[in-house]
Amino acid sequence: MGQPTHGTSSQDSLTVKDNRTGKVYTIPIVDNAVSATAFKDIKAPRKPNERVENETEKGLRVQDKGFLNTAVMQSTITYIDGEAGVLHYRGYPIEQLAEKSSHLESAYLLIYGSLPTQPQYELFEREVLNHGVTHSDTAQFFRSFRYDAHPMSMLTSAFAMLGSYYSEANPSLQGQRLYTKGDAASLATMDRQIYRIIGKATTLAAMAYRIRQGREFVTPPTGLSYTASFLYQMDHIGEENYVPNPVLVKALDTLFLIHADHELNASCTTVLQTGSSLVDPYSAIAAGCASLYGPLHGGANEAVIRMLISIGKPENVPAFIEAVKRREKTLSGFGHRVYKTSDPRSFIVRKTADEVFKVTGQDQLLETAMALHDAAMKDEYFIKRRLAPNVDFWSGLIYRAMGFPLDFFPVLFAVPRVVGWLAHWRQMMLQEGGVKIWRPRQVYVGETKRDFVPVEDRVAVEGPKQTPSKVQHGGISKRTQLASYKSKL
Ligand code: ACO
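^ Citrate synthase, sequence as received from the core. Prediction below:
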């Protein structure tokens, strides 16, 4: 395994001259990165009339809205080369893993750093599958949701709920060093939570699905793989010897594998940010789910299908593309913060789609998707901005062909992604020097200090963003509006 190089020669540094003071600073470069805190040493006297909130004399701040070029971790887990369209888990190309490995084997690789031997894999698989069963009270929890609750809301809440069952896994109750000691007992506690979270992810997801279908819940079966067990738990309604279709099991497993990790994306960063307070892993994973749910991230696969349905047929594609260019619409499933050529996972998804369509039949939106893809790839707007299809552009079509409801798509993303979140969380808990709470800085541009104004002296500040909006109250009938009662405004 290659080792990172450390900048020791004097050339491995930046010479920075502060033109405000004429002072020169040398800032070391290590692994092609400079430390943001080194810039804090660059101080200057505050200029006359300069805002005190700039804190100029306290040191320079590094501003990076949206983390465009800020590295917050040293990691050995996943490598992405966005220019070349490359994705490696622990050094192994995603294409090789998708062809030769399984989701659970790759999970072992992501979390523990190497491909497991047969006995190592068997132990890991057994632990994960054994931890699939949830407390019987979980059924009550799912039944408390409205009949039309979004499955992602249920899954997010379910992970947080799960934490309440394991007081021994909660650093707030057991001591804040529960996961950071790195000794055998601490590692065992950590690994038990990892087995539980991966094992129960499919169970909770299947429960979120079944509550929407009005079906009783199914205990995780024995003798099936992780992915087959998931399909069984979703679909089994009492048939004897029910076995999910092997082509669909394999396809879903491949999709799980390629969704398992993607380094410091929005949801993984959320898990680490939340975990940096040393909260229990269930709360951190719930936070990750919440972040993943957004349409710019894991909600994009659902958004793609809604977009394709709204376009309807290939003939409507040109008008849609023009609306995107006028910024009236978003082309969901296109563009990526890191990939600027192609997302390597999108090719694997295309191949998997062909396998699935052979058994399910082709999705009727495929033609519209192809027309949209081809039109966007030829259009100057998308070429100039280097926008290519991401994994979500095609994955939704497979999920639809497999008969999953649209709002279940983000769940199908979250279930495998708990693996990546846990791998990064574990890495952070065990990193050298301990865990530092993630507390970014801000550039304060608001009002400078001012004195309180008594109510009778205030001048109303008006404007849509400056005053609370008026809202219609749902569920208030004409009769209630016409009624009179004490304190009616
Ligand atoms: N459709 C139309 N225009 C787009 C799109 C898109 N899908 N994506 C980016 N652009 C445009 C932006 O408007 C911007 O144009 P401008 O420079 O003229 O203002 C330019 O391309 C750069 O885009 P940014 O938004 O600055 O890129 P950023 O890295 O911040 O965002 C993101 C990346 C959020 C993925 C964005 O491309 C997007 O919104 N895509 C659609 C949603 C999507 O598919 N999300 C899934 C991401 S993959 C995943 O989570 C698995």
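The first strand starts at residue 13 and ends at 17.
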